[in-house]
TrEMBL record:
Name assigned to this protein: Adenylosuccinate synthetase
Reactions performed catalytically: IMP + L-aspartate + GTP = N(6)-(1,2-dicarboxyethyl)-AMP + GDP + phosphate + 2 H(+)
Subcellular location: Cytoplasm
Keyword terms of this UniProt record: Cytoplasm, GTP-binding, Ligase, Magnesium, Metal-binding, Nucleotide-binding, Purine biosynthesis
Described purpose of this protein according to its UniProt entry: Plays an important role in the de novo pathway of purine nucleotide biosynthesis. Catalyzes the first committed step in the biosynthesis of AMP from IMP.
UniProt keyword annotation of Magnesium present: yes
Requisite cofactors: Mg(2+)
UniProt source species: Methanoculleus nereidis
Record EC number: 6.3.4.4
Residues annotated for Mg(2+) binding in this entry: D13, G42
Length: 336
């Protein structure tokens, strides 16, 4: 049995999709199950010359042998889901828990019409906040009530736990990042539920004693989209000088760029129960590291940064992304 959770350690956009895709190809899971909020969070996965941005389908879809599942804690927008199933051709191997909440058109309209959510909080406008509110009020539909989803319905908790009973490998994929957790983030500038590792396990019906590893993904230069505190934020001029300019997967809004936040990294690692960490964007610390696949290929500046990150996090950095493609990564997990 092996059950690993992968979550974001900062404000989202840490490159979790690539890390999940890499681990999937290396560890060969039978199931990749997604937790998190809903289609307000996107993953970008680059495979060769193709780049896929998905909001509902788990980013581990690039590993073709795994069943893909969306846990009961996640909100499902049937329109987005069905479009992505066709886009990335996962018909027949993707499933939705029948207890998932459903995002209706009126949830999206309420989200976009709310001055508080749109202007103050910086909502993505995907309907997740209103849909979660209706779920708490017990007035929303569930996925099993939507005819268009009938062919995809399953009991994710049963499927995942049965796979673990058979000693199979399972990956639980989180979305967004620790800094916008409803419970632990920069409230009120947060998303509509918790985003920590324990929540991702609960979203998929997996008890805490069944988790083997929690990999928290951190970005060398953290980013944030929308409103809210960002203590290490640099000026746009400075980020442009460094050659860093990014845009959100879902909103396409320009991301705010910051420097490494050791204090936040340590707190995030603590709450998430981090057992090992991944660092993405090391090639921005030193471009000479671009494409490296062995630790010995890293420059002194990059190795010093990793050492400082490990000291801040309090756990080993075992995955180091050196570029956007899946092959551009250093995997040290076998050396623990």
């Amino acid at each position: 049995m092996s059950c690993t959770i992968i979550v974001g350690g900062f404000f989202g956009d840490e490159g979790k999709g690539k890390i999940v895709a890499h681990i999937a190809h290396q560890d060969r899971p039978s199931i990749i199950a997604r937790g998190g909020v809903g289609p307000n969070a996107g993953h970008t996965v680059q495979v060769g010359e193709k780049e896929y941005g998905v909001r509902m389908v788990p980013s581990g879809f690039v590993y073709p042998e795994a069943a893909l599942m969306i846990g009961s804690g996640v909100l499902v927008d049937p329109r987005v889901f069905l479009r992505e199933v066709d886009l990335v051709d996962v018909q027949g191997r993707i499933f939705v828990d029948g207890r998932c909440g459903v995002i209706e058109e009126e949830h999206i309209a309420r989200d976009k019409a709310s001055g508080h959510l749109r202007d103050k909080i910086g909502s993505t406008g995907t309907g997740c906040g209103p849909a979660n509110a209706d779920r708490v009020l017990r007035t929303s539909r569930q996925a099993k009530d939507v005819p268009e989803l009938a062919d995809f319905i399953t009991d994710v908790a049963e499927d995942v736990n049965s796979a673990l009973d058979r000693d199979e490998v399972v990956l639980l994929e989180g979305t967004q990042g620790f800094g916008i957790s409803l419970y632990f983030g920069t409230y009120p500038f947060v998303t509509s539920k918790d985003t920590s590792a324990s929540q991702i396990a609960a979203d998929n019906g997996v008890g805490p004693t069944r988790i083997d590893d929690v990999i928290v993904v951190f970005k060398a230069y953290p980013t944030r989209v929308g409103e809210g505190p960002f203590s290490t934020e640099m000026t746009a001029e400075r980020s442009h000088e460094l050659g860093i300019e990014e845009f959100g997967t879902v909103t396409h809004r320009q991301r705010r760029i910051g420097t490494w936040d050791g204090k936040m990294a340590r707190y995030s690692a603590m709450i998430n129960g981090c057992t090992q960490a991944a660092i993405t964007g090391i090639d921005r610390i030193d471009p000479a590291c671009f494409g490296a696949t062995e630790y010995d290929q890293l420059t002194k500046a990059a190795r010093d940064f990793i050492a400082q990150a490990e000291n801040d996090i309090g756990k080993p950095v075992t995955l180091i992304s050196t570029g956007p493609e899946m092959s551009q990564i250093i995997d040290l997990r076998g050396k623990l």
